[in-house]
Amino acid sequence: KIFRALQATADPFILKNLKSYRQFLLLNDSKYSNDMGIASQIRDSLMANNVIDELHKGHRMLVWAHNGHIQKTKNKWSATMGQHLSQLLGREYAAIGLTTSQGFYTAYNESDKGVVKTNRLIVPIASQIEYYLKQVKHQNYFLSTGNIKVPSTINTHRLLGYGVTDDQFQAGNMIEAFDYILFISKTTGSLNHYLKT
Fold first, then answer.
1. pLDDT digits (tens, 9 = 90+) for 126-149
2. Beta strands of the chain (E only): which ranges?
3. Which residues are registered as beta bridge partners of 141?
4. DSSP string, 168-191
5. What are phi and psi of 90, to 5 degrees?
6. Which of 73, 85, 135, 160 is the most buried (most CB within 10 A)?
7. Residues in Cβ contact with 165 at an 8 Å cutoff, skipping those fewer than 6 apart
8. Does residue 73 carry a pLDDT above 70?
9. Does the predicted TM-score (pTM) go above 0.70?
10. DSSP structure class, residue 128
11. How does pLDDT run across 35-60, given as a tens digit for each residue?
């Protein structure tokens, strides 16, 4: 009843908040939220729709998100926001992936019962692209993936999620997933307002 009454409004602010609340209800519906594949698919498709809604003709937009959302290929759970945007926008969509070889990262650490920035990265091995990105003479660099060919033996790349894990690499070709790669050889954990002090 409330939604029907609000549908009559023309106020863009109210309409935008109404849409966001509907998305919140959908994402938290137990019919979908208990299945990671379905929940991920819904979340990324909604993210893509939200980007399209905000994109105005003749304008450019920069969307900063996790690699697992912006990549142009399927991630380990579902189709991604980047995959949807790439299909809708074609060559007008470009994805920049961020990766690293060694150091620390910020994530929820169960043993510390909070978000910490000193979670150790696993050093990549020969089947992981970061192993080869580290061989370049520069410590940190920006790389266009357009003309790079990767042998099938290099079949995983780093994908860090919300929590600390030893399973830091996923199957897939990072060169196909991104148009550009920002490689940082050695990282320290990023600052985050959830950090345990």
1. 999 999 999 999 999 999 999 899
2. 96-109, 114-120, 140-144, 156-158, 169-171, 180-187
3. 183
4. -EEES-HHHH-SEEEEEEEE-PPP
5. 60, -130
6. 85
7. none
8. yes
9. yes
10. B
11. 888 888 889 999 999 999 889 888 89
